[in-house]
Amino acid sequence: MRTWTLRGTTTSYVVGVPDHGRWAELVAWGPHDGLAPVAVVGTEHFVPRADVEPMEYAVRGVRYTSPVDLVVSGSDGSDEFRPVFVEAREADGLELEFADVVRIVLHYRMVGDAVERWVSLRNDGPNEVVLHRHDSAGFVVPGGNTVKYLWGEWNSEFQQASVTLPRGRFTIGSAQGITGHSYSPYLVVDGDVAYGVQLAWSGSWEMSADVDTTGLVRIQAGRTSSSLGITLKPGETWVSPKAVGACSAEGTDGLARVFHEYERAASRKRIPKVLYNSWFATEFDIRAEHQLELARRAAGIGVETFVVDDGWFVGRSDDTGGLGDWEVDPAKFPGGLDAFIGQLKDLGLDFGLWVEPESVSPTSQLAKDHPEWILRTPGRDPILIRNQLLLDLSRDDVAEFIWSTLDRLLSTYDITYLKWDANRPRLDSGDQRRDLDGRVVANLYQILEKLRDRHPKVSVEGCAGGGARVDLAMASLVDTLWPSDNTAPLDRLRIQEGFRTGFAPHLMSSWVTDAEGTHDGRERSLDFRFHVAMAGVLGIGADLSRWTDDQLKTAARHIEQYKGFRELIASSLVYRLTTGVQYVGAPRSVVFLWETGDGNVRGTLPTRPRRVPLAGLDPAKNYRVGNETYPGSYLLQVGIPFEGPADSHCLVVEHLD
Ligand code: DGJ
Cα(422) to centroid of ligand 1, in Å? Predict the structure, then answer.
């Protein structure tokens, strides 16, 4: 067998092609010094050998009874083929090429401790072929059978759950044409060493965990197949999205750090500006004077960017109209948007704008002018959700309209921030002979890339009715992601904990609002709310016109403190604590502690403060917390006290020597 090792920072991924050349298989995956081989010993019974081997990419026709990653049918009616190994190329990563009628290239690239995998498929034959199943990769996991995943719904995204699989199959996905609220494209296997896979795709997708007869979990990740499959004409190539596998000897918390590092590597590393967004304060009731009143208060507490959300454009006084007609509503901004932005500048504030470019209101002028741009299935009425339809972004003229609309807005007005929303799933399947999902998502990515290229000073926040489009692809194309519309303190904390298992703090947009909990309505202090939001990219969304002077002073204090360590939050290693989170950077750490239990304890009985052991420190070094100096070993084992009656704390730990 020929083998190749992809060496990461602390882990390696070893892949091999047996001498017969009929497939590639996993040889080992894990920490450099703990690489466990996964080779199968013994004899298979009643199945082909390929069905028990730790296959990297399983093809129907090589493998039969175990799950396959690729099913292709040809003009002869067969759906089996048997590619053979051609060659390996080792330039930027590794490429393993196999050939039959369809030429398959397995691509690998190591980034930190994450291994990117994708496939490209080229039709080398004289006739059309159809791809019926087309995963990005299969990842054999060398140990563990507890599978963790993230599920949710609107206002309740990123809930953590797990399932133990002694045998059998567990599948999650999205049939919504968008990453979806229901599940994140993320599966983690928890063991002594933790393994995880994420799929970088913002359309429909599917991920499965299967336990093979030897007891190993194998994760498949890929785009959902459409009913008629994807047609490849002779000479055409199809490229899958990336699936990213990660591995950590520091358990699932360490695995999250590997994913964070991977996302940071693709980010623009911007200083996260403190924004104010008026959505929760005013919803569609936008009046320039009132917005300015909010802006004056926001500027007074240290906010840097003022974002006007949904409702600024003509025909948009509620969610039934306006989408598509991206012109500033003169009734809302009587002096024009330029003058409004000028007034914000006088207050020292930059300006940001909300858009939802992929959608269209049926009553809009755009819908009247271009009915052919509306996504519909031939012969059927398009499906209305939240009173809106979708533009058919698989069309290049629609992509051009969206790009030119954004380009015009960003070139006309002094805008430094764009909140890109998407408030409905894509349900109409259109003409199934076209790869609708692939074309829509490719056009979306192209527009986002062009935005970065042509308007580099504009930061983009990705939002989709809360957190319905959070995935590794979006994480590499936008600056921040909005995890949820739920901003109530205890609910939000739980959502953020789930988010952080897959996504880094520099991406986690988080606002302080006045919201009550949907799930957990217990009250928490304003400090608590701030500390929750400061653990990501801090914003304010409260109705500041109702805040007292004391509340505004508290806000100003927190914002000032946040500005002192926000770059550390965005770039540090994050550790989960028993009741909080620690951001370990140099030369300091930032620790947030939250009381998530019963907030009504009055403290009338004798007790002791709870202690929270810290993490990520060197036991042999010294650290200062407040006026006290402690050895690292003490902070790691005994920890710091959680002193009441405050329900949260933010501590800065100075790293001394
Ligand atoms: C859904 C978003 O998640 C909200 O923050 C807000 O922008 C609304 N859409 C506006 O319609």
Answer: 8
CA-closest residue to ligand 1 atom 2: 465
Asked if residues 118 and 240 have their Cβ atoms less than 8 Å apart, the reply is yes
Domain boundaries defined on the chain: 2-265, 275-360+395-431+441-571, 590-655
Ligand 1 touching residue 310 (CB < 6 A): yes
pTM: 0.98
Mapped onto helix, strand or coil, the DSSP state of residue 156 is coil
Ligand 1 within 6 A of CB of 485: yes
Amino acid letter, residue 90: E
Contact between 185 and 171 (Cβ < 8 Å):
no
CA of 380 relative to ligand 1 center, distance in Å? 29
Calculate how far, in angstroms, residue 465's C-alpha sits from the geometric centre of ligand 1.
5
Q: Whose CA is nearest to atom 1 of ligand 1?
A: 465
SS3 label, residue 507: helix
The CA distance from 177 to 463, in Å, is 15
Which H or E run includes 107?
A: strand 102-111
Share of the chain above pLDDT 70, in %: 99
Q: Is the CB of 306 under 6 A from ligand 1?
A: no
Q: Give the distance (Å) from ligand 1 centre to CA of residue 466.
A: 7
Q: Which of 421, 487, 518, 540, when mutated, tests ligand 1's pocket best, judged by the most ligand atoms within 8 Å of its CB?
A: 421
With a CB cutoff of 8 Å and minimum separation 6, the contacts of 41 are: none
CB of 465 shorter than 6 A to ligand 1: yes
* Two structure tokens written together for 190: 């928890």
Nearest atom (ligand 1) to Cα of 354? 7
Indicate the SS3 state at residue 571. helix
Element (H, E) at 433: none
Architecture of domain 590-655: Sandwich (2.60)
Distance CA 529, CA 520 (A): 14
- Please tell me the distance between residue 497's alpha carbon and the centre of ligand 1 in angstroms: 22
**Closest protein CA for atom 10 of ligand 1:** 310
Q: What is the dihedral of CA 88, 91, 95, 101, to 10 degrees?
A: -80
Of 3-17, 542-556, 636-650, give the lowest mean pLDDT range. 636-650
Distance CA 464, CA 469 (A): 6
Q: CB neighbours of 546 closer than 8 A, spacing ≥ 6?
A: 514
Q: What gap in Å lies between CA 130 and CA 231, rounded to an integer?
A: 4
The class level of CATH for 2-265 reads mainly beta
From CA 553, how far away is CA 515, in angstroms rounded?
20
End-to-end Cα spacing for the chain:
49
What is the Cα–Cα distance from 556 to 276, expressed in whole angstroms? 13
- In sequence order, what are the residues at sequence separation of 6 or more whose Cβ sits closer than 8 angstroms to the Cβ of residue 371? none
3-state DSSP of 446-504: HHHHHHHHHCCCCEEEECECCECCCCHHHHHHCCEECCCCCCCHHHHHHHHHHHHCCCC
Q: What is the pLDDT of residue 602?
A: 60
The CATH homologous superfamily for domain 275-360+395-431+441-571 is Aldolase class I (3.20.20.70)
Q: How far apart are alpha carbons 205 and 218 in whole angstroms?
A: 17
Quick: pLDDT tens for 614-656: 999 999 999 999 999 999 999 999 999 998 889 999 999 999 9
